[in-house]
Design brief:
The protein is mainly beta. The protein contains one helix and eight strands. It has one helix spanning 113-125; strands at residues 7-13, 18-22, 28-39, 50-53, 69-73, 78-95, 103-105, 108-110. The strands form two sheets. Strands 1, 2, 3, 4, 5 and 6 form a six-stranded antiparallel sheet that branches. The chain has a two-stranded antiparallel ribbon with strand order 7-8. The N and C termini lie far apart (40 Å). 17% of the residues are buried.
């Protein structure tokens, strides 16, 4: 049974193995591919999801998603992953949306571009981490 909490699952599968997981309706769900490749949607349709990373706008015929790509799932109550020809290892993350704006640069995440600029300046000056 799936609870109402966040999940983070390290999913590693050999070639052509299938993984299914029930998700909480209304939660944000995404998968980050670490190694290998796989199919993260029904029908292997490359337009069925949003992707960021090395494969972004890649017109290749094979629609398997490889390392350093993020698949953002839409509405639904489950996800399915099928390992590709190399097997696949990915992180499956799910959690309640924060319902706030997000601005990011590398590992720094803030709410606005102005906060982000301030944080980057502090990081470069060595004052980003504050002692309590």
């Amino acid at each position: 049974m799936v609870g109402k909490k966040q999940i983070a699952i390290d999913v590693a599968m050999p070639t052509e193995e299938k993984f299914s997981h029930i998700t909480v309706s209304g939660h944000t769900v995404f998968a980050y591919v670490i190694e290998g490749n796989g199919y993260f949607y029904e029908g292997r349709d490359p337009c069925a999801f949003e992707t960021e990373g090395g494969r972004y706008l890649d017109p290749s015929e094979d629609c398997a998603i490889g390392p350093e790509n993020v698949v953002l799932y839409g509405e639904g109550d489950s996800v399915e992953i099928i390992a590709g020809e190399k097997g696949v290892r990915s992180l499956l993350i799910s959690g309640k949306p924060i319902c706030e704006p997000v601005a990011w640069y590398g590992p720094i995440v803030m709410n606005t571009q102005e906060e982000l600029k301030t944080a980057v300046e502090e990081y470069r000056r060595g004052t980003f981490i504050k002692d309590s």
